């Protein structure tokens, strides 16, 4: 029998937490509810969830701080919850490591769909370190440049013979740009290609992911991740 996936629900509104739990239980998820930030951090370690639904406005430690604390040691997916009217900086949430966000009041089907979509993306990535093969042994969908191999089939990046860890969307964005060398893409095109219709975001989402990539991958003498001012981005291969 396949073990149920576990969802940690963090919301100080007991009624909302119970409603979310009901939706997810009907979809055969196992759930645990907590109602403040400090308890969320403790229960995260004990419960070991597959995904966390995290409300922003919590007593004591808020959702941003909980996300920051969890991301120090774990890459488990986090979906942030925010009520309409609350100040919610989506970019800040993404920079702290959130995978998606849902605005309250939400449709139950949309919430479940987002949970399933984020889990799907997360499970595509090997959760154990991948031993990167040299270029001659690469298989599947990959691109190779001097000192860089991006393999989308096993979600791995080899940079100067070192494996670089990346969340799924970062790697997919990097692979997409590198597989179309010197082609310029607008932020809107990248948002559509990489996030698709299941993600309601704005173009700043792309900027955040490009910033993350640049922190991990520096420009090479033969190639670079370039900004085309006023338009978007390209993977530039220097001749």
Structural description of this entry:
The protein has 2 domains: 6-122, Response regulator (Rossmann fold, 3-Layer(aba) Sandwich); 142-237, Winged helix-like DNA-binding domain superfamily/Winged helix DNA-binding domain (Arc Repressor Mutant, subunit A, Orthogonal Bundle), CATH 1.10.10.10. The chain has 239 residues and is an alpha/beta fold. A hairpin with a 3-residue loop joins β11 and β12 (232-237). The strands form 3 sheets. The chain has a 5-stranded parallel beta sheet with strand order 2-1-3-4-5, with helices on both faces. It has helices at residues 14-26, 37-47, 63-70, 90-96, 108-124, 168-178, 187-195, 204-216, and strands at 6-10, 30-34, 51-55, 78-83, 100-104, 142-145, 148-151, 156-159, 162-163, 185-186, 223-228, 232-237. GO terms for molecular function: phosphorelay response regulator activity; transcription cis-regulatory region binding. Residues 140-237 form the OmpR/PhoB-type domain.
Known CATH architecture of the largest domain: 3-Layer(aba) Sandwich
Oligomer: single chain
The succession of helices and strands, N to C, reads EHEHEHEHEHEEEEHEHHEE
Low-pLDDT stretches are: 125-132
Keywords, please?
DNA-binding; Rossmann fold; phosphoprotein; 239 residues; 2 domains; alpha/beta; 4-stranded antiparallel beta sheet; 5-stranded parallel beta sheet; phosphorelay response regulator activity; 23% strand; Arc Repressor Mutant, subunit A
